[in-house]
Structure formats: C-alpha cells, structure tokens
From TrEMBL:
<keyword id="KW-0489">Methyltransferase</keyword>
<dbReference type="GO" id="GO:0032259">
    <property type="term" value="P:methylation"/>
</dbReference>
<dbReference type="InterPro" id="IPR052939">
    <property type="entry name" value="23S_rRNA_MeTrnsfrase_RlmA"/>
</dbReference>
<dbReference type="Pfam" id="PF08241">
    <property type="entry name" value="Methyltransf_11"/>
</dbReference>
<feature type="domain" description="Methyltransferase type 11">
    <location>
        <begin position="53"/>
        <end position="136"/>
    </location>
</feature>
<protein>
    <submittedName>
        <fullName>SAM-dependent methyltransferase</fullName>
    </submittedName>
</protein>
<dbReference type="GO" id="GO:0008757">
    <property type="term" value="F:S-adenosylmethionine-dependent methyltransferase activity"/>
</dbReference>
<keyword id="KW-0808">Transferase</keyword>
<dbReference type="InterPro" id="IPR013216">
    <property type="entry name" value="Methyltransf_11"/>
</dbReference>
<dbReference type="InterPro" id="IPR029063">
    <property type="entry name" value="SAM-dependent_MTases_sf"/>
</dbReference>
Amino acid sequence: MADRFDDLVAEAETAPVDGWDFSWLDGRASEQRPSWGYARAMGERMAHATAGLDIQTGGGEVLAGAPRLAVRTVVTESWPPNLARAAALLRPRGVAVVAADDSRVLPFADDTFDLVVSRHPVATCWDEIGRVLTPGDTYFSQQVGPASVFELVEFFLGPQPAETRRRRHPDHARAAAEAAGPRVVDLRMETLDTEFRDIGAMIYFLRKVIWIVPGFTVAGHRPRLEALHDRIRADGPFRAHTTRFLIEARKPA
C-alpha cells in the first residue's frame, strides 16, 4: 500500500464506490459492529416471511447474505449503479429488483408485505411503510444514529449546532413511526468505535458515504486532507465514534 499523500489520493479517487461493500477498506479502516447483529437477525426474520421487502438495498449485499429469503422477496433502490449490482446479485435467487425513490411513494399496493427491512436508510418514510405492511406485521431496520462520526464531520466543516447533533435520534424515529401508525416494539442504540488508518481510507469513505461531508471533493478539501494525512502519520489512526440504532415496529392488527 502506498504511503505518500499523492499516491494515496490517486488510489482512493479511482476506487469504485457503487454498492455497500466496504471491503476496499480492509486493513485501512475499521468499524465496531453493534451487539444485536442486524444481518443475522434480519435473515432469521426473512426466512419465515411470505412476502419481504428490502428498502434502499444498495447493491443488495446485506440481503444476499441471508441464507433463506421470503417466499416472495422484493428490493428497491434508486441509484442506477447500485441497481445493476443488486440485480446481478439477487435476481439469480428470484428476487424482484425495483427502481424506486424510497423517500416517496413506494410502487406497491396496500397491505402487501409481512416483513419490511432496511439497513442504514437515508430516510424512512413511515407513512409508506405502514401502508405496504400487512396488518400485524413488522418493519425491522438498523439505522445511523445522531452525531455519527462527528469527529470527522467537524474536522472538515467545523463545530456543528446542537440541533444538527440531535438529528436521526431514535426518539425522533419512535415519534415518527407511531404518528404514522406502526407501534415500536424494540428500540436500542449503541455508540461504537471507528478508525481510519490512512488518508486514502478517509477519501474513499467520504466519496461513498456522501452525506457525511456534503459536496466533498479532494480538490475542494485538499488543505484539510493534507493536514489530516500529516496527523495520521504523526499520531496514528484518526478515531471517531459511530452511532447505530435498531428499530422494530409493528403495524396494528
């Protein structure tokens, strides 16, 4: 692996960022996983479902890890490169891959799915989730919590206001869910350790997770990147904290 700034930048700028496979970061960054094991728990629920929907599936990588899928399984995704990856990965298993803007109306009839899942959705449209769930059935999701990797956010953007730090709080998710109809039956949050071991890992992460530093480009943030490169070389990995919450909500019977 290169260790000069320009070499690390060039490597990270040309790495493909479609899908939600983060294996490019192996050995270069690490993120502690929540204790509840979302992928395993989601797979257990999917194995017993009749009709399952995975919203904002990305490249389909998480769902593809489930040993057994619902009798009828559908995924939605809005970004064309991810749609292509999801189709290649999931259609051989009989999954329907649907292009949809997941923050708006879902293209499905009322009371269609007995399980709806989503890992790290950008937004959760509770009205639509409640509409497409069959009565008595479940939405199960792991989501990014408040002030996640804010050490990195504030390194680039400066101190953030208190209201920004409270965004994506699980209490807000509970209120939004129950205002739309589904009743929350499980809600947990954990704060976890994350570290970046070189500036290339940082650039790749910011290119892929575009809402962390909106409008991020290497050219536009080069002075801060150079300062961060020097800091990592002198002091070791850049450490931050991620927050994740698990939410399970059930549509009233």
